[in-house]
Write a structure and sequence with these properties.
It is a single chain. The chain is an alpha+beta fold and 543 residues long. The protein folds into 2 domains: 321 residues, no CATH class; 111 residues, no CATH class. It has 21 helices and 9 strands. The strands form 2 sheets. Strands 4-5-6-3-7-9-8 form a 7-stranded mixed β-sheet. A two-stranded antiparallel sheet has the order 1-2. A hairpin with a 2-residue loop joins strand 5 and strand 6. The protein starts with a helix and ends with a strand.
Length: 543
Amino acid sequence: MNNRKADNRIFLLLFAVLAAAGAALRFFRFGMVPAGLNQDEASIGYDAYCLATWGMDRNGYHWPVYPISWGSGGGSPLLDYLVTLSTALFGKNIYSLRLVPALLGSLTPPLLALLPFAVPQNAEQNSEASGSLRQFFSLAILFPAVVNPWHLMMSRWTLDANILPFFLTLSVLSFLHAAASTVRRLPKYLLSAFCFALCTWSYGSATLVVPLALVLIGICCVRNGRMTLRELFLSALIFVLTLSPLILFFAVNLSGRGPIETPWFSVPVLTASRSVFSSGSELLSLILNNIRYLIIFFTVGAERDELYCNVLPGFAQMYRFTFPLTLGGIFLSVRRMQKKHPEDTIFVILTGCTAVFSLFIELDINRMTMLLVPFLYFQALALQALWQKKKAAAVAVCALILCGALLFTHDYFGERYRELACSDGFFMPGYAEAAQAAAATAGDGKQIVSTYTRVAAPFVVALYATGTPPEEFRDTVVWKDETAEFRIASAFSDFVFGLPEDLSGIDLDRQVLILHQSELDGFPGIEAAEITAYGDFALVRKP
């Protein structure tokens, strides 16, 4: 018994140390890595600032049930309102903008590590050996999750896909807790249904994958005796009720009628339609390419053509050398499904539904986010099996993961990642500060002319940086194409985006420039200008 108590203390100590290390990695150099601001997080931040300050988004909708953002969507209602809350509490800054993903990202690994303790037990599993095995399985999920490159990177900047792992983990945990219960099970299943609905609110791809997966999971659990038909029906009802505003939004947009606007909420209408699905003659080619992508993703990890937002070349999503654990875990999980293990049923179905969904869309790593949590589970399952057969091999694998983590953190928090992230204009370090300084110093009547070199949708970064009121934005905006899938502004207020072809027409008496550092050499009249550097950009004005 004393040995058991000592083992429990060691387990709790390791659990606490790893959980604290995970939080430290997600908050280390918080707001500085990645350096700069991405256009998608600027879009989320600006809408959140408008909602927190004026109660409307940039499109003029009061408390929209779904943000239309770029015109065709592109945002998550759940993330938008969570960032609205953090902005209301802590003001408009990079820290309040990135707080939600960092906080939820810190909580996800310890939540994942609770999964083994929520799994239903049978009589033979209540042994002391089973308790030790659960503790090892908990640490086998926690450790890879803490140092996982994909999850670590997505926890440090703001995008709707980046909060999905937390809500998916919470949903699975609540479902397993309900399945393990013998009394008052219905309220726990209803809570689980609510959590799964939050997954759907958190990211677009979950809108289709989660309902399909839940139908299959519900059928399996009813057949296995884990859930009654009454529990299934009432859980489905809670799920649909939680999604009712989202269903109303889709119904309004499909009907072709105008928006619904009240003082308390709005149901916006998209300015352009958007679909990630392909059809017609391109469909077969897309499916073949996506099959190839999935094979790579499930093995060594896809890196080619991926943006550097959530991928650091050389490390892939899960460290390249860990794919035998992933594939071995999938094999073990499919076998365990036959023994009616609910956790394996959930993760195998989620993986299968995501893979099928992925065949018909234009793929990138963000649309594969649903696979992160199942992959971590599969790796832990394989690591547990390895531990039972040959402990030295399991320790060696953990040591390799630790070495990979040390190399990854060295590159990610060092200059290598900064150079990669800046090379395609994805985070634009210094642009927001340059835009804010330009607005503050330009003075009345001066035009602010911005470069388009190594920037993407600079107008929305300028909007967030300057805190422009939404009415002023809508009154002054000039769209490149108002009906485009992603509406991009060519001008608003005093800002004009894009340098003129004839640079000799630049007049610093009437204009202030925001240039990329690479454009300074040889720029007409630059010798007589006052230049203030802001990261990769510079503010150019008359002395």
